[in-house]
Amino acid sequence: MGERKICLTAAYDGTCFYGWQVQAAGRTVQGVMEEALAQMHRRPVRLTGAGRTDSGVHARGQRAHFTTDIASMEPQQFVPALNSLLPRDVRVTDAREVHPGFHARYDAVSREYRYLLHWGSQDPMNSGVMQISRIPDIPLLNAYARCIIGTHDFTSFCSSGDASASRIRNITDAVWYARGSDAVFLIRGNAFLWKMVRSLVGTMLELEQAGALASEMKRILEARDRDRSGTVAQSSGLHLWRVEYA
After folding, report:
1. Do 4-98 and 109-245 come out as alike in CATH topology?
2. Which residues fall within 8 angstroms of residue 239, CB to CB, at 6 or more apart?
3. CA of residue 182 relative to chain centroid, distance
């Protein structure tokens, strides 16, 4: 058997990571996973992720591929083997063989993020939420969220450092819902710009606190001007939840 391409599903607590992508300095998710793969293969192994989560951002369903020449292991055996080498804040939850041309990033057709807010008493053991001091108006937040569904230019909601050739993205789902003392923002689309989800959340929360009409959210979107949107919500509440393929 020759080389095979394996696609992993990984979950991680991003609190102590400087994001997904390997950097010159700082602990990264890609870095610790490549270290584990290198121990298994006794050589460097390149791991390519479906998305580059920022510093402090978490994942439940990050996807990443690598090429292996280990013929003796079935794909699912990579799950316990890698978990035995990885730190506790990264877990591989699935592994499967994919066709040689598969690309975890470019073949993805949908990405789902969820942003978690908590307004109850603060739990020091839960690093995956943004703490707020009030119960948000969920129907009003959903009025804002409906404005971004569809294909739009999201320049108003991306970082000025975003290098994407196009800032047009297609959002298929955007909804807020309550869950106990939490509020969850679920957003699903073909792809996302740098800091786009956190910018959307921060803007909607500012508009909701001011009691603004949904038409204001629409005006900000159509302005294509980053200076019109609100602050970027903190990274602790953001989770890459799922990546889907055709």
Report:
1. yes
2. 57, 58, 59, 60, 113, 114, 115, 116, 128
3. 19
Whether 54 sits among the annotated catalytic residues: the reply is yes
Asked if CATH classification 3.30.70.660 holds for the domain at 109-245, the reply, yes or no, is yes
> Residue ranges per domain, the chain?
4-98, 109-245
Strands 108-118 and 130-131: parallel
Q: How far apart are the C-alpha atoms of 17 and 173, rounded to whole Å?
A: 28
Q: Which residues 6+ apart lie within 8 Å of 11 measured at CB?
A: 59, 60, 61, 62, 90, 91, 93
Q: Which member of 13, 54, 123, 182 is catalytic?
A: 54
Provide the pLDDT confidence category of residue 120 given band limits of 50, 70 and 90. Answer: confident
Q: Which amino acid is at 185?
A: F
Q: Examine the pLDDT at 11 and tell me if it is beyond 80.
A: yes
* pLDDT at residue 125 in the model: 62
Which of the listed CATH numbers 3.30.70.580, 3.40.50.720, 3.40.47.10, 3.30.530.20 matches domain 4-98? Answer: 3.30.70.580
Dump pLDDT digits (tens) for 29-85: 999 999 999 999 999 999 999 999 999 999 999 999 999 999 999 999 999 999 999
149 within 8 A of 218, measured Cβ to Cβ = no
